[in-house]
Amino acid sequence: MIRNYQYVIFLFTIISIAASAVPKTEEGKRVLDHDFQQHLGEEHSKQYDHEQFLGEDQAKTFDQLAPEESRRRLGIIVDKIDTNKDGFVDLSELKAWIQFTQRRYIEDDVERQWRSHNPDNNDTIHWDVYRKNVYGFMEEMDPADLEKEDNGFSYKAMLTRDRRRWSVADRDGDDSLTREEFTSFLHPEESEFMRDVVVSETVEDIDKDNDGKISVEEYIGDMYRVTDDDAEEPEWVKHERETFKTFRDKDHDGFLNNEEVREWIIPHDFDHAEAESKHLIYEADADSDEKLTKEEILSKYDVFVGSQATDFGEALVRHDEF
């Protein structure tokens, strides 16, 4: 049985060896989130945890709630998670819930974008239709502006990236995507045949000098931004430098190539939902019986549904302060 300090070592080992890649699906936000390996950090963990527990969209809703309402709704969710109605949430039930929230987010996102780009609900969406909907404004732009980059971003580069991703998702080669193919386009991390695209996009996002590989500074720079030239790097950043050297850079040439990036962001035999479930149980399991009562979950509601972004909802109910 892994408990307390041993569990922290266990989880940190998992995080050091594996990370989850979840591309954002809104246009202009397809940057990979390498956040699982750092979500134990003091500032990041609660926000990450409640997004994993609720799903990204519902987490945003909870961010706007006062603590009392947040706890009330959390109690309703706990009753849903406890599928065998024994009064406890165990690892399998929590894992199933997190998997459900992940599927729900993807399904809702695909449904929303399918309706947006295909209001007549045709069987497929052609590339020309998608390109016009998303990038049609480029036709009115000055060609010189299309070539400009802002921190490595340009509309032209985004169009090129989407065109490549679309072509890979287009399994039958007709330049139109079925709903299933469109799902792979929007969420390539969910489809095995899209994994090469995920790797390529990750390298392109992090490789600032465009040499086709990722240096340790580029690797760290994707996770951590220096705000004070004299500030000492946090311990987790020092740990990530060592992780790069020890685990990520397999051939020890000082860089990550595509295959090493693949092993980093798409690790074999790593169950993200299970690792997150174990972490949440560790955070809330006051009596160390490896399962959670509703009271234990509600006592840690800020981990599951709270948000520091709005002072756990308090700021939004104090109208007299504005």
Question: How would you characterize this protein structure?
Answer:
With 322 residues, the chain is mainly alpha-helical. The chain contains 17 helices and four strands. The chain has helices at residues 4-17, 45-54, 56-62, 67-81, 91-117, 127-135, 143-147, 155-169, 179-186, 195-206, 216-221, 235-248, 258-265, 272-284, 294-299, 301-304, 314-317, and strands spanning 125-126, 176-177, 214-215, 255-256. The strands form two sheets. A two-stranded antiparallel ribbon has the order 1-2. α5 (91-117) crosses α14 and α10 packs across α13. The protein is globular and about 60 Å long. The termini are far apart.
Secondary-structure element order, as H and E?
HHHHHEHHHEHHEHHEHHHHH
How far apart, in Å, are the first and last alpha carbons? 51 Å
Largest pleated sheet: 2 strands, antiparallel
Number of helices: 17
- What number is the mean pLDDT? 80
Helix content: 40-55%
- Shape field: globular
**Arrangement of strands in the largest sheet:** 1-2
Radius of gyration: 22 Å
How large is the share of residues in beta strands? under 5%
Query: What structural class is derived from the secondary structure elements?
Result: mainly alpha
Q: Uncertain runs with pLDDT below 50, 5 residues or more? A: 1-44, 307-322
